[in-house]
Amino acid sequence: MTMISDNPERRFMAALGARLPRPKAILAVTAHWETQGSTRITDGEFPRTIHDFRGFPQALYDMRYPAPNAPELQDRIEALAGDLPLRRDATWGFDHGVWGVLLPMFPAADIPVVAMSVNHSLTPDQHLELAGRLAPLRREGVMIVGSGNVVHNLRLYHASRGTRPDWASAFQQRINAAVLADDRAALTRFSPGDTAAANAINSGEHYLPLFYAVGARLPEDQAGVFNDSIDGALSMTSYLLGDTRVLAEATASLAA
């Protein structure tokens, strides 16, 4: 619903996209493409727009994100992944984990995009390793997007919507601090009795894309938090790793 309603999160993403350096291409790791055995990347000249949800207004199903494929980026991803299992897949496309983030930032859909799956066969450390291997892409003009939610529990959402539960807020603050400090152990190691982590991470697919932003962090990167909001058991909190001056510029533009 963020895409078809007037809300602070969407407005900020639009303001941010207008101020970010234009990427040569975008690699979007999406929580809504789950695979086993191998990590997959989209293929085909213009991957299809996928509406992987139901029961929403028609306006959402009418949305398209006709961004072109990025063959050179596909080749580089395969080369950098090395011995980690990865293959191209023309059966998928741009699900709302991809276009739900890119549409407000780059509405023209004229930047080449490759979407990447979350491979559940990898351990958290292997996700970080793959992200680290892909980090050189950022010096080549490629933006890496990890699209998910730090707090994502649909089972608890309907009973908690419109509130800010203590457990969700506490977990979000912990993850914010870990991202800012580049404390990867705090992002990947949780005790068996950590109820807040169990509630927030839930089945894991929405949490794992964060590792591709953190794992591809460059030595000179600054880290910033934006859209730091929670609605029940869902968060919209986002991070920028790079030149965080654009966050201040986007904030100032919305206040003007």
From TrEMBL:
Domain Extradiol ring-cleavage dioxygenase class III enzyme subunit B: 21-216
Keyword Nucleotide-binding found: no
Pfam families named in the record: LigB (PF02900)
Keyword annotations of the record: Dioxygenase, Metal-binding, Oxidoreductase, Zinc
Superkingdom: Bacteria
Signal sequence, renumbered to the chain: none
Swiss-Prot/TrEMBL cofactor(s): Zn(2+)
One example GO MF annotation: dioxygenase activity
Family classification: Belongs to the DODA-type extradiol aromatic ring-opening dioxygenase family.
Protein name: Dioxygenase
UniProt source species: Novosphingobium organovorum
